[in-house]
Amino acid sequence: MSLDEDTRWLEWVTKQFGNIAGDDKEIDLDEFKTALKVKESFFAERFFELFDSDGSRSISLDELLKALNLLIHGSKTDKLRFLFQVYDVDGQLPFKDISLIHLSNPDSTGSGSIDPDELRTVLKSCLRESAISLPEEKLDDLTLALFESADKDNSGSITFEELKAEDLFNNPVSTVCDAANWLKPPEMEQKKRNTPRYLTRAYWQNNSRKLLFLCFYCLINVLLFIMAMLQHAPGGIWLMLAKGCGTCLDLNCTFIMVLMLRRCLTWLRATWVVRVLPLDQNILLHHIVGYAILIFTIGHTMAHVMNFGRLIQMDGRYHMWEYLLTTRPGIGWIYGTASITGVVLQVLICLMVVCSSTFVRRSGHFEVFYWTHLSYVWVWILLIVHCANFWKWFVVPGIVFIVEKLVGIAVSRMSGQYIIEVNLLPSKVTHLVIKRPPFFHFKPGDFIYINIPVIAKYEWHPFTISSAPEQQDIMWLHVRSMGQWTNRLYEYFQSESQTTSTKRLTASLRNRHHQTQTLITAKLSENHRFCNIKCYVDGPYGTPTRQIFASEHAVLIGAGIGITPFASILQSIIYRMRKQNCPNCSYSWCATIKDSEMNLRKVDFIWINRDQKSFEWFVSLLTKLEMDQADEEPEGRFLEMHMYMTSALSKNDMKAIGLQMALDLLAKKEKRDSITGLRTRTQPGRPEWRKVFQKVSEEKKGKVHVFYCGSPALAKVIKAHCEQFGFSFYKENF
What we know:
By secondary structure, the chain is of the alpha/beta class. The chain has 29 helices and 17 strands.
């Protein structure tokens, strides 16, 4: 920390101390715990005891500042001493004097050594603080691994000198200094004032297709607006504005439909057009055009209202409400219905835009978005009635759209499929196994729309296919419970499992032999069972990840359930990189299946999860991937995996230093990660994207393409770093 940061920190501590301490100017243990906001009270109690230099069971401002000053400005030995005292649980005495003389005496603060039981107590608290759940036997293994590493003289205890000589922490000066950082308030972090990324050369280079297309789109709208205004110049300024907005609405209300021609876009992704047009940005463009329609609609309506006001002043034959809500003025090409249809269109368009907002779709109300968005059919019908020229814009794209819909309905109904297996996974994820018809062909990362009548008869929802195309008989979906439909899906199969369990004895008494056989085939475990449930599938539809096998160096980043498209890709890699064995000797090698689309030289897979349970979704797949590369040297591996658990505290946090070191030691010893069971070590916290991409850049395996699926907030962060390194960035939307 710099001197300025230290000063700001101490000023903040002084100010917050006054808010927390209250009138007595002292902080007791409960107030201290509340202020620290730690999950595990052990660390709050240990820090409280060490800060309370006079043993009064309360901390004064002077005591707090002295302790914090030690953690910031003290020497490496001072900071290691503080850490040692935290771990020395028998050492119940607090800092009697925050001075170097006191710290040089290891026996002045307790037993002066750490035994295995003390270390186990601390590691157990570390696990709770990091939200990691491990069996008691694994905790014992972690304790012994760390203890044996530090106890050099095999005396059965760790002294301060052994801890100091062990170099337990790779960089003790910075690590222990940063250990005090957990007291720093987030709001004190200063943001560097850099040039806005939208003005950087890297941003324009990496988004050239999208930006050029948007410029062309804006230019077309401006030209249409000006031409319409000039054409109606005799009618006055308000009529000119209304007609200008109306002509732009003709274009945009047609173009927004073109952007949703999913089958056509999927086909175009396999052609040269994908290198010219931003096809992978179709949903972003759909949003932009939607907001443009709203703006033009409001402008069109307001301009007509002002023009009606001008007409009322000129002749006074009709009132404003007659112009807006009746056919008496005779405005419009079909029985004077332009005003009435215009009002209805204004309401429908505003409703669609509001209900398609992120706060509606992401707050568990997807059905509100879904049903209001279906009103697009009425919007187009009303537009044809409202405007004499709209049908000219609509006829060709409209026919293509209708054909697409009819083909989708025919295919989905003709190929009625069945869910044949269900597995309820942690964090309310439903794994569906669907019987795949012979003619259903897809590529890794594609998505489908699925309708399950027993859940909702008329609702279709999009999900990414998480199995590989090479699996001929089945396909997988992994559905995270985030809204009404997905929650009903999970609860339906959960209740089915519970019903099967409760009725097992009754059914067995009715027909013991027959029912026993049925249960074996119907239920594999409490949350895993076979079934035969009707469903309908519309798709598949292409996504940006279709380009992965045309990349040279691909970086796949999945956040939480965002792993699903990459699960399909990774499984496809297993099939394409099969291990071959010589029939005459023990030699084995990895042979690539001949594929004209396969240009990959290296794949980095990064999976970020909030909690430990989420890794169970695809742990078997990842284990298989590791086994296929077990004989390869780390530097020469085609696929490199990186796991991150955000709830786990980082190695720079004093509450996690010992735990992370123990996990590292045990992983080296067992060649397996204690959290996931994989060979790949799970890293705590979030990735440092600059370091991650710097390493990728230094490998020089070819042009780097980064594929991401997860939260939009993280997408912005990753995209900004990609622009700095000149990497191509692709974002999945499902």
